[in-house]
């Protein structure tokens, strides 16, 4: 893992990241900037060094993987209190579960995410899960490996052509899912409280309420963020409100749906199957009940983990951090209300200029 040195007076702008895996394009882009010092700090094993680096940082690229990043390096009020010079934070993904955005806003810290960087990959994965469930791909594979004496009809699945897909959230990922659905001959409905009806229609879906979506959709697919308004939103009542034999898919975030309630709905036969990329705990324990069901297709939060998406996200993060450290407003501000304060703090940083040799 490269380390471009400790911050020093030779470089007035100090950017830190931890030594968790990141596409090399990030270090290449930041390393090419003569006025930015990049420090790659240990995520584990040398807390004193990492804390010292973050204490002097102006910018922090932080992993968005909540179960991979050690808790002490989450951007929360405690860490912010240790980092008086921190002016901008970039989450390494579309999500920002590892960043306390209100605490950053209160401290005058601009927060960006990389929404859209992995959208194509996540949209594709949505259909990988859906088709695997509907066509019983994993079950067929396992039976071919281990069983004999069964017929093709024993593995008969269902088409998605002509079905209704209901999207809970139609942002950058949901919009791509809607476009792909048209090619499969699906009808698209969507619920997104952050968008008006005309915008939802422009993105390829018929706007509906959440209860109507649950009652009409043959496939319910989640594409919303995890926050206070969505945590636990798809609970036992929501699963009960879904059409009999509907399929549930989530490439959003663990915690939006109730895993125990989903297990009950599947075991009772109310739902046909589920495709799950996200979990309350990641990876989920091997004895997680959902993993034992033959009509569940599971992946390890890999929807956005492709070579292309990881490069896009790393490039986007580097570009936004460089822009902010030049005093420019970035395109993916999570807390836009903080920009007047954050930009003033960045301007003060820039006004210091390079150290005199």
UniProtKB/TrEMBL annotation:
Classification lineage: Bacteria, Pseudomonadati, Pseudomonadota, Betaproteobacteria, Burkholderiales
All residue ranges annotated as the D-isomer specific 2-hydroxyacid dehydrogenase NAD-binding domain in the record: 128-303
The protein's Enzyme Commission number: 1.1.1.81
Protein name, UniProt field: Glyoxylate/hydroxypyruvate reductase B
Protein species of origin: Achromobacter piechaudii
One function term, GO molecular function aspect: hydroxypyruvate reductase [NAD(P)H] activity
Family the UniProt entry places it in: Belongs to the D-isomer specific 2-hydroxyacid dehydrogenase family.
Xref: PANTHER family: D-ISOMER SPECIFIC 2-HYDROXYACID DEHYDROGENASE FAMILY PROTEIN (AFU_ORTHOLOGUE AFUA_6G10090) (PTHR42789)
Domain of life: Bacteria
InterPro entries registered for this protein in UniProt: D-2-hydroxyacid_DH (IPR050857), D-isomer_2_OHA_DH_cat_dom (IPR006139), D-isomer_DH_CS (IPR029753), D-isomer_DH_NAD-bd (IPR006140), NAD(P)-bd_dom_sf (IPR036291)
Any matching Pfam family: 2-Hacid_dh
SUPFAM superfamilies (UniProt xref): Formate/glycerate dehydrogenase catalytic domain-like (SSF52283), NAD(P)-binding Rossmann-fold domains (SSF51735)
Keywords: NAD, Oxidoreductase
Domain D-isomer specific 2-hydroxyacid dehydrogenase catalytic, residue spans: 74-335
């Amino acid at each position: 893992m490269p380390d471009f040195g400790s911050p020093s007076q030779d470089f007035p702008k100090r950017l830190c990241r931890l030594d968790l895996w990141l596409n090399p394009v990030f270090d290449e882009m930041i390393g090419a900037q003569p006025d930015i010092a990049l420090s790659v700090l240990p995520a584990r094993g040398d807390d004193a060094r990492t804390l010292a680096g973050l204490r002097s940082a102006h910018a922090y690229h932080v992993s968005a993987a909540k179960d991979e990043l050690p808790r002490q390096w989450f951007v929360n009020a405690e860490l912010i209190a240790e980092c008086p010079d921190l002016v901008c934070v970039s989450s390494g993904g579309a999500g920002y579960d590892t960043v306390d955005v209100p605490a950053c806003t209160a401290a005058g810290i601009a927060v960006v995410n990389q929404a859209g960087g992995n959208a194509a990959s996540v949209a594709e994965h949505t259909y990988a899960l859906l088709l695997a469930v509907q066509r019983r791909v994993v079950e067929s594979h396992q039976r071919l490996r281990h069983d004999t004496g069964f017929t093709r009809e024993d593995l008969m699945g269902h088409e998605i052509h002509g079905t209704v897909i209901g999207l809970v959230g139609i942002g950058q990922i949901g919009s791509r899912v809607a476009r792909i659905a048209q090619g499969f001959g699906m009808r698209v409905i969507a619920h997104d409280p952050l968008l008006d009806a005309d915008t939802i229609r422009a993105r390829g879906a018929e706007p509906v309420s959440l209860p109507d979506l649950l009652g009409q959709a043959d496939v319910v697919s989640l594409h919303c963020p995890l926050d206070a308004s969505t945590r636990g939103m798809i609970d036992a009542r929501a699963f009960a409100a879904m059409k009999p034999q509907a399929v549930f898919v989530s490439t959003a975030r663990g915690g939006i749906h109730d895993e125990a309630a989903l297990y009950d709905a599947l075991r009772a036969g109310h739902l046909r199957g589920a495709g799950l990329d996200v979990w309350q705990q990641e990876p989920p324990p091997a004895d997680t009940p959902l993993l034992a069901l033959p009509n569940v297709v599971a992946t390890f939060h890999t929807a956005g983990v492709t070579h292309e998406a990881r490069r896009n996200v790393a490039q986007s993060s580097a570009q936004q951090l460089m822009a902010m450290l030049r005093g420019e407003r970035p395109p993916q501000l999570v807390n836009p209300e903080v920009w007047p304060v954050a930009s003033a703090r960045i301007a003060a940083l820039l006004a210091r200029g390079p150290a005199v040799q």
